[in-house]
From TrEMBL:
A GO molecular function held by the record: metal ion binding
Pathway membership, UniProt: Polyol metabolism; glycerol fermentation; glycerone phosphate from glycerol (oxidative route): step 1/2
Residues bound to Zn(2+): H274
Organism: Aureimonas ureilytica
Name of the featured protein: Glycerol dehydrogenase
Manner of cofactor binding, per the entry note: Binds 1 zinc ion per subunit.
Family statement drawn from the similarity comment of this UniProt entry: Belongs to the iron-containing alcohol dehydrogenase family.
Top-rank taxon, per record: Bacteria
PANTHER family xref list: GLYCEROL DEHYDROGENASE, GLYCEROL DEHYDROGENASE 1
Binding site for glycerol: D122, D172, H257, H274
Cofactor(s), by name: Zn(2+)
InterPro entries linked: ADH_Fe/GldA, ADH_Fe_CS, Glycerol_DH
Residues annotated for NAD(+) binding in this entry: D38, G95, K96, A97, L98, D99, T117, I118, A119, S120, S126, L128, Y132
Cited CDD domains: GlyDH (cd08170)
Length: 369
């Protein structure tokens, strides 16, 4: 009998200014907390938070995040958490700060609260944390065993970040439905516990993610570029954070992320955000799975309108050689790559040819409206 499983954070709260309520959410978890906060917010947020947490009866120690989710950084935060006898660990910042906070909490058996300051990663809601080397090379994924207790998403903070992050988050969220479908069709396991078949609910969340992107993505990008907070921006923050986060964890990733990971063997791609590379990976996945041309056209026009990369040249790979693409195909075919949930016969050549073809199709001029 196949078992199906679903998981997610206990609570998700989003809106302008919710960071000020942190104490109210933290107090029920215990009266001592460790707060791992991105350096950019050390002076901007910490002083107000210190007094707000004290007023809520929570004694908090603050650690300034060093910038990399590395073993050394995690050890430093674990030591600080132990010294503070922290009942909860709060992460405030981008994906790497949140991952460090989650793995720290796992290490000391504490509860987890995430406060993302950009809407461009799937870290805030998930039970997974990624570890990198001190100079930023991917090392491994840590399964933290539990999802965050509370996810606090302050849309005021997020709309103040450069709109490029929101667009990159949409590139990452664009992969959620297509990759969920790969996993359903290949009957692959999700990332809940040791892996289950996905639930109807998990798959419907991935579908809703896609619908919201197509409906509100362009209007949200225009508003966010101008620093405006509209219902479309709020919907996209939710799609990028809650829907994409639950969708990927409950259904699984596939070729868009697999090709993203493999492309990192080519140095020029290191200058792009995760979601930007995943957006191009989506186009490659649609070619690899030979989906209907209308699907490719929809994803292509969406990425173009958000300024996301759609060709190898857009990723700094205008001079890529056949040997380079073979190296990418080889990296993608490694057993540890997530591409193997693609419901198609895979080979180094099939992957290299899909990448080159996606770029070629996207290089043709946009059709007249
Ligand atoms: Zn991703």
């Amino acid at each position: 009998m196949t078992q199906r499983g679903y998981g997610g954070p206990l609570r998700y709260v989003q809106g302008p200014g919710v960071t000020a309520d942190l104490g109210r959410y933290l107090a029920p978890l215990g009266d001592k907390a460790l707060v791992v906060i991105d350096g950019f917010f050390w002076d901007r947020l910490r002083p107000d938070l210190e007094s707000a947490l004290a007023a809520a009866g929570v004694a908090a120690d603050f650690v300034r995040f060093g910038g990399e989710s590395s073993d050394a950084e995690i050890e430093r935060c674990v030591a600080a958490g132990r010294a503070a006898s922290a009942a909860s660990v709060v992460g405030i910042g981008g994906g790497k700060a949140l991952d460090t906070a989650k793995i720290t909490a796992f290490g000391i058996g504490a509860r987890i609260v995430t406060v993302p300051t950009i809407a461009s990663t799937d870290s805030p809601t998930s039970s997974l944390g990624v570890v990198y080397s001190p100079d930023g090379v991917y090392d491994r994924v840590v399964r933290c065993g539990r999802n965050p207790d509370v996810v606090l998403v302050d849309s005021d903070l997020i709309v103040k970040a450069p709109a490029r992050f929101l667009a990159a988050g949409m590139g990452d969220a664009l992969s959620t439905f297509y990759e969920a479908r790969s996993n359903i069709e290949s009957r692959s396991n999700n990332y809940i516990g040791d892996g289950y078949a996905s639930t109807v609910g998990g798959y419907q969340i991935a579908r809703a993610c896609h619908e919201v992107l197509m409906r509100d993505g362009r209007a949200a990008y225009a508003a966010a570029k101008d620093g405006r907070l509209t219902p479309a921006v709020e919907n996209i923050i939710e799609a990028n954070t809650l829907l994409s986060g639950l969708g990927f964890e409950n259904c699984g990733v596939s070729g868009a992320h697999g090709i993203h990971d493999a492309l990192t063997v080519l140095e020029p791609t290191h200058h792009f955000l995760h979601g930007e590379k995943v957006a191009f990976g989506v186009l490659c996945l649609l070619v690899l799975e030979n989906r209907p041309p209308a699907e490719f056209a929809e994803a292509l026009s969406f990425c173009r309108d958000l300024g996301l990369p759609t060709t190898l040249a857009d990723l700094g790979l205008q001079t890529v050689s056949a040997a380079d693409l073979t190296r990418v195909g080889e990296a993608a075919m490694l057993p540890t790559n997530v591409i193997h949930s693609v419901p198609a016969k895979l080979s180094v050549r099939a992957i290299a040819d899909a990448i080159a073809t996606a770029s070629l199709l996207a290089s043709r001029p946009a059709p007249a409206p």
